[in-house]
Amino acid sequence: MIVDGLHKDLSTLSVGVAGLGLIGGSVARRFARAGVRTLAWNHHDTPYEAARAEGIHCVETVEGLAASGVDILFLCTPLRAMDDILGRIAPVLPPQTTLSDVGSVKTRVHDSVAAAGLDRQYVGAHPMAGSEFSGFSASSAQLLDGALWALTFDDQTDYLRYLLMARTITDVLGNTFIGVDNATHDAAAALISHMPHVVSTALANTLCDSPDCKVGVALSAGSWRDMTRVALTDPARTQAMVEENPANVAALVRQVAQRLLDVADVLDDPEGRAIDLTAFFAEADPYRRYKKAQRDGEPMENGTLTVQSRSWRHQLVESARRGERITHVRAIREFDISWQRVPDTSDVTYRAL
Amino acid sequence: MIVDGLHKDLSTLSVGVAGLGLIGGSVARRFARAGVRTLAWNHHDTPYEAARAEGIHCVETVEGLAASGVDILFLCTPLRAMDDILGRIAPVLPPQTTLSDVGSVKTRVHDSVAAAGLDRQYVGAHPMAGSEFSGFSASSAQLLDGALWALTFDDQTDYLRYLLMARTITDVLGNTFIGVDNATHDAAAALISHMPHVVSTALANTLCDSPDCKVGVALSAGSWRDMTRVALTDPARTQAMVEENPANVAALVRQVAQRLLDVADVLDDPEGRAIDLTAFFAEADPYRRYKKAQRDGEPMENGTLTVQSRSWRHQLVESARRGERITHVRAIREFDISWQRVPDTSDVTYRAL
């Protein structure tokens, strides 16, 4: 079988899933439900009986899974196990298999993949899905209903493998995706997840450190509950997540700290030459208008774009930066994508765009 | 009629409510539903027809309301109108009427009340209730179901007036309260509401200022949504709230900024001499255990306390700092309170207590 994202008949697609946790289990279930031949391995066989009942073929070793010749192998194991898994599969993974993963940080996974000599076969993936539960028993094909994926790349990423992944996400899984380079992905993930986790933790710490903590708890309402919800999740897992993306998190945390110090300066000295407080509170108005358009159920804006093989990386990143979510891929020599996004008229354009 | 919190027969209680917005309307409805003679005034008479249908007696002027001789007059007008209202009622408010309010910041209201020469009649109140809506049409007696109030005081607050307010909240409204001085109230309100609003705004601003903003929005999930929800509310109202409590907010915002900079330092230089990152993520463990006890539905701990007239302020603040919420007040010469709180064994005691 020759991997060819352009001509691959998706009705003959086969996939492998290493790691049947919440995300891996949901991915495997969704492929199996779509009629795709789905092989899976887990580091213990507890989920195998339930997985087999879902039509998932379970294999005994990750080496066996890697050697099976599936078109795409998704690594859905924890990041800390990645180097070990990659070392075990590298000697047996056939060149026609495209390697992917589902992790929330991409640069470090790519570095591990490159160290194992597999980066020419690799396309990173990150589905936006999750729940507060974990394990195969909590997984479901429905967890990915309406999911947006980030499909990531770097300068070495193979065009045809990327196209195979793109068509698989849209045509087989029925999901949407954005295409971004690994570095942009990790900066954005730090912005909307990793940094906020640190901030939420800092708020909870400030409460615990206050002589008024129980008075504060008594007075607390929705705003406090929302701002500290993620601080209540397992702090060790949060720490591990932050440590996987340290430079991006550090830079953003410094930005937030500086904004806070600016506000403190003007509150302490309203006549001073610090920032304009009204401007501080108005700065996010474009985001407020964007969220209002979304809340009001404004019809999605739709469009198509012809992506060319010599400029596909740049075109996909620019599409993502315009807020477009790719719904369909029609592969010819180039490929046409269809997208949708929340409408973005000139007065709701973000300042930076 | 002599105001006497010790001996007042609550079945003859009468109250006045100035301002029939969301909170004022709900307070008035709840008193009327409890069979209390309830007078009200609003700066326009739009809500009067609906209010009268609820058994609320509407009067034409705030001066008329103030002169009516009610036992307690609640000012439920916006803070910006407070000085004007106080100037109008000061000449006509009888000495037997106890003046209160429902604002979320207490020190500034007290200063305005003192400037109007009414501080000897004043007991501050702040019910923990609200919704995303506003106006009398959104108000309801049920909005205060299970509500906790902060009843505040300073060194001048009259013991018997405070007792009348306490008995009214528990026996008439069926709510609970904590007793704290105005300064402690405002510090705690800054901690769990005003400061988090600034932090949430800073996060939304950081998004808008990022070249990756739309990529971030595409990748965003529950943590981002929760952390920026309050930033989506009216920024002018948030700014006004923060500017009513500037010193407390500034101090707390600086504390959070310092915590964030400490984290950035250790992420940028893990071998450096910055903070212990594991300790940072574990610091709020007492709060996590407290919330878990609450989530798990641990039975509330109950107790009683005899509050003495010579030390009532100190005793009530200490009770609030222990996490006790006062459910009943039995007035004798001193008064006995009953309280309940989420259980707090030694291993869930907050560090600072």
TrEMBL record, chains A, B:
SUPFAM superfamilies: 6-phosphogluconate dehydrogenase C-terminal domain-like, NAD(P)-binding Rossmann-fold domains
Example of a GO MF term: prephenate dehydrogenase (NADP+) activity
Keywords annotated in UniProt: Oxidoreductase
GO biological process: tyrosine biosynthetic process
InterPro entries linked to this entry: 6-PGluconate_DH-like_C_sf, NAD(P)-bd_dom_sf, PDH_C, PDH_N, Preph/Arog_dehydrog, Prephen_DH
Boundaries of every Prephenate/arogenate dehydrogenase domain copy: 13-297
A Pfam family reported for this protein in Swiss-Prot or TrEMBL: PDH_C
Family: Belongs to the prephenate/arogenate dehydrogenase family.
Stated name of the protein: Prephenate dehydrogenase
Annotated organism of origin: Pseudoscardovia radai
